[in-house]
Amino acid sequence: MGHLIIGDYKKGIVPIAEIDHYKLCMEHALELFMKKDLDDILGPLDYIVSKRKNIAIITVPVDNHLVLISAEPDTKIEPIIEEILQKLKFQK
Q1: Looking at CB atoms within 10 Å, which of 4, 43, 60, 64 has the fewest?
Q2: pLDDT by 10s per residue, the chain, length 92
Q3: Is residue 85 part of a domain?
């Protein structure tokens, strides 16, 4: 439903903007829900990357939850995604 369950920032990181967490979580939950319609044809979604001028957000569905990871916009996203997927695979 887009409710933030837990969230934190890495030590020393200051948020770029005061973001309404509920709105951000709801946006990503809705995006994933809308993309689920194609699961039967294309297969289940592994992740979504939203890249903006000031931030990149990686959304990973896990059971009935979403994991949102933010990164600097110039960060190489693929290694982060691979690490996330590996860690989630071992926790199941």
Answers
A1: 64
A2: 555 555 666 776 666 555 566 677 777 778 888 888 899 999 988 888 989 898 888 888 888 778 888 888 899 999 988 888 888 776 65
A3: yes
**pTM for the full predicted model:** 0.71
Beta strands in the chain (DSSP E): 48-51, 56-62, 65-71
The two three-digit tokens of residue 21, written as one number: 């967490």
**CA 29 to CA 39: how far, in whole Å?**
16
Domain residues for 78?
21-91
Question: Do residues 70 and 60 touch, judged by C-beta distance below 8 A?
Answer: no
